[in-house]
Predict the 3D structure of the following.
Amino acid sequence: MDQENDLRSDLEAAFDAAETEDAPEQIETAAEAPEEVPEPEPEAEPEPEAGPEPEPEPAAAETSTKPPVGWSVTTKEKWSELPADVQEAIHSREVEVAKLMQDTAEQRRTADRYGEMVNKYAPIFAAEGPQAAQDPMWALENLIGITAQLQSGTPQAKAERIAQLAQHYSVDIEMLDAALAGEPTADPQMSHMEKLLEQRLAPVNQLMQQVQQSQVNQRAQAYEEAGQSIEQFSADPANRFFNDVRMQMADIIQYAKAQGRQMSLQEAYDTACALNPEIASILANERAQTTAAQSQEAVAAKKAAASSIAGRQSGTETQGPMSLRDTLQHAFDNQHVR
């Protein structure tokens, strides 16, 4: 520590002596210098139009009394031991580095994007050949050259370049021709697979067609039979209200089918007639008249039977007394006749 203090004292004494020796010369120089004549102030120039604000310049380095911010604590402790000219040189260097970083910010961003693009499409560059893989910039220049030729080249040069690209990238000529003609293009591999699948499924498709045709024939036959049955049913005089209730019959049959029950035409007809008030009234009157007629016929038959029994009784009286069975039968018949 004593040696360092002595060295520091010697350096400070040397600096003071140098400054003392230079002071007289500076005074004499200042005395000999002629008085400066003030120059006329230049005319005020018009203010430039407002434009985009320039990017802020890097902050000026701090005075030599403080070390650079990026230094470690241990290094900052030794800052005061450095000579002033060294401190100024370090600060000047820090300012230059900061300005350089600001001036090259856009270039560094471009370089980063270029690196990302090269990494992303590395397999594409490798597929184009070793030169493109080793020097992606060469591949990009080549691609830009192709684009420029297709934009501004002669028709013959454009056609030749497209032919080269089609050959290089194995473009199918037939598909290219169809695409140029505006026709839909199909993948040859998919077309081949579709043909194979169609061949394999041909027997199944044929069987399905036969089944569908059989079902169509069965439906047609069922419709024909149903039509004949309906025609016969409607022609029967007993079903004279068929045309009046045929729509209701269709609804009733459809509802029964939805319930899983098969209903005949007669059942549907009877149900539809019962649901129609006018037809139901007519049919009720007819049934009442039929019942009355049947009752009258039954009474007449019973009377005729009683007359025959009475005649037989009168005949038996001349012959002799009636048997127990004849007596009971005669009493039973007489009671019903009354």
